[in-house]
Amino acid sequence: MNGVINILKPPGMTSFDVVAYLRKKLNVKKIGHTGTLDPGAAGVLPICIGKATKIVDYLTAQDKKYICEICFGETTDTYDKYGNVVRRYEKDFTLDYQKLNQIIKSKFIGEIEQVPPAYSAIKINGMRAYDLARKGHEFEIPKRKVIIYNIDIIDVYSKRALLEVHCSKGTYIRSLCYDLGECLGYGAYMGFLLRTQTGKFKLDDSYVLEEINKENINNIMLTVDKLLDYDSLKLDIDESKKFCNGVILSKRHKDGMYKIYNYKSEFLGIGNINNNKLKPEKIFV
Predict the structure, then answer these.
(1) Which DSSP string do the residues of 45-75 spell out, in sequence order?
(2) Which domains are delineated in the chain?
């Protein structure tokens, strides 16, 4: 059993809970997810099974799309609705679409710096930040650079806004909501989060956990090579054997990553060509 399942994670489960559920239901040992979703969030969560776990890092690195609700007028210690209110904007205000849009376009598109929430899975000296925060420890999380490709305002209602965000890996939408609130001067926290896409995996093509079973899993799983956006390269019999044994081969092709197939068009793995030398990166046979 080797492949990737596009799971619709429900709110209330951690990403690890989803992995544990499928491990037991499908009776598989090698299984992992490709990017943590907050327990309260829902949406696309690709799950790698068997040899497909070798591409977890490749899939995690792909762009993400989200729909989120941002609630203005209060801030919380977790930057979402599940935390304790730490500050409240006392004056009455009206959320203005034009002002919000102007702030987004001028300060939150392109490469930006953000600080992940204290209640996050970031590691601080080997410990998860959320564990330190729950124990009341004081600590600093360094800023990180992320890329926001686009933010569309879907709707503005009362003191809330619905946003669609296209961003790079590592982006914390909770931090984005908090920072937007600070820029507008009202404070803000994230009301809900739905991940609609990660790489090629889209919400419309996802499966709820109850749909997955041993009988249909092979029809639902996507094969590794179909998910990689690399050029293909076919090897002859001798080259195929050497590649699978980790031997560096001479190949006159442009530099870059390739999907490697044998003479029977069977997928062997991922290779990297540099200066006409093909180096095996990941082998799947």
Answers:
(1) EEEEEGGGGGGHHHHHTS-EEEEEEEEESEE
(2) 3-62+200-225 (3.30.2350.10), 64-195 (3.30.2350.10), 230-283 (2.30.130.10)
